[in-house]
Amino acid sequence: MPLSSYRRFAEVYDWEGSIDFSRQAFRRLMAICREYGIAPGWHLDLGCGTGTLAILMAEAGWKVIGLDLSEAMLAQARRKAAEAGRKILFVRQDMRQLRIAEPVKLVTSFYDTLNHLSSGTGRRRRSAGISKLLACVQSGGKPSIHFPCPVAET
C-alpha cells in the first residue's frame, strides 16, 4: 500500500481487526516471556501502527519504542497512548534503514510489517532488513516476528 494511503487507513485501522490481533499477540508474547524468563525492559515495536500493542506492553511494565513510517498511524498511536496515560517513544522511521541508540530486550514485528521489506526488492533486501532487526536485539533478548502469508520472491 502506498504511504499516502496510510493517511486515510489510520482513521479506520483499529476497526479492521488490528486491536483483537494485537491483544492476541500480546497474550502470546507474555506467555513467551514467562516461558523464557524475559523480564520487562526495552521493547521495539516495528510497524507499530496505531500503537495498540505498544500500549499493552507499556501497561505490562515495558519501556516501549514504537516505530512506523506513517505519520498518520503515529498520530493515532500518540493520541491513544496519551489517553491511556502511557509514556511511549513513537518514532517515524523506515525500518529498512533501522537505527536505534541501544539494543533492546524484545523486538516485535507483527501483521504484515515485514512484507514491506520486499516491495520490489526481493530476497536480498528482505534479508538485509531482517538482519538489521536482529542486530537491535541485545544479548539474551528475543525477536518475535509474524509472517501472515508467504512473500513472493522477485
What is the assigned CATH homologous superfamily? Vaccinia Virus protein VP39
Beta-strand residue fraction: 15-25%
How many domains in all? Answer: 1
The CATH architecture can be given as 3-Layer(aba) Sandwich
> Can you count the beta strands?
5
Strand order of the largest sheet: 3-2-1-4-5
- Average pLDDT confidence is 78
Report the order of strands and helices: HHEHEHEEHE
Q: Which outline best applies?
A: globular
Poorly predicted runs = 147-154
Major beta sheet summary: 5 strands, parallel
Evaluate the radius of gyration: 15 Å
* Total count of helical runs of at least 4 residues: 5
Q: How would you sum up this structure, described in words?
A:
The protein has a single domain (18-145), classed as Vaccinia Virus protein VP39 (Rossmann fold). It has 5 helices and 5 strands. Helices cover 42% and strands 19% of the residues. It has helices spanning 3-12, 18-36, 52-59, 71-84, 122-135, and strands at residues 42-46, 63-68, 89-92, 104-109, 137-145. It is globular, with a radius of gyration of 15 Å. Strand 2 (63-68), helix 4 and strand 3 (89-92) form a beta-alpha-beta unit. With 154 residues, the protein is an alpha/beta fold.
